[in-house]
Amino acid sequence: MRKTTWLAAATAAALSLGLTACGSGSDTGKGGADDGPLVVGVTPVPAGEVLHHIDDKLAAKAGLKLEIKEFTDYVLPNTALQEGTLDANLYQNQPFLDDFNKSKGTELVSVVKAYLPPMGVYSHKVKDVTKLRDGATVGVPNDLTNEARALKLLASAGVIELKPGTGADASPADVTGNPRHLKFQEMEAAQLPRSLDDMDAAVINNNFAQDAGLSPTKDAVYLESAKNNPYANLLAVKKGNEDDPRVEKLAKLLTSPEVKKFIEDKYKGSVLPVSGS
């Protein structure tokens, strides 16, 4: 039976209070209430759908109880995990987690990689990213990791060039070649799909694209490749809780053949399964 708490990202304070009111994770690791439900924070798509499939079809047989809490932003699932109101979360990649730990002073670690949701360029005005007009406005996420990822995607499409050696902290200041004189509009990642009509294109994270009814394989005018991609989404916990038996059970299920098949059948290339950690 599904247990879902919807947490809309209205304000951080209100949501933090909502988390506390709706129940808390065990924050116990090895020695805690391992027979209680594992409280996992997710974004609705695809993480929430994958977790609900596990909860409905696989968890009971594995002796695992799940409580799934849904978030609509990228900050609160980590702050809740650090504070102990979540036992684990599933929604982010390793570069984002590393930057979050560095900037927020959190102690969160990866347990296992689960799947890759490819980032894409979307547009209501062109069908080919290389056909963007001179001076076009392109929306990009305003958080460090996803903005860097977006700029790298545009560079791989050949519409901009980045300074050699640019890494996971790339910003518009690192753009060394911009023959189309693109203008980058930075905004919250969740706001980009609804702002498409106001821009020439936007680089949108997979989960927010699908939330908005966009199909990465059908609607993206340019889509990220899975080859050598460091942005697979991972199951994360607070440091010290990696060996929680409930976490180990969920990690095993996330990389199981059954979940791999679910991802392949449901998303048909819009989300790609990842085997192993």
UniProtKB/TrEMBL annotation:
Subcellular location as annotated: Membrane
InterPro entries the record matches: Lipoprotein_NlpA (IPR004872)
Signal peptide: 1-21
Lipidation (S-diacylglycerol cysteine): 22
Record keyword Cell wall biogenesis/degradation present: no
A GO-annotated cellular component: membrane
Signal found in the keyword field: yes
Keywords of this entry: Lipoprotein, Membrane, Palmitate, Signal
Membrane disposition: Lipid-anchor
A Pfam family of this chain: Lipoprotein_9
CDD domains: PBP2_lipoprotein_Tp32
Homology family: Belongs to the nlpA lipoprotein family.
Official protein name in the record: Lipoprotein
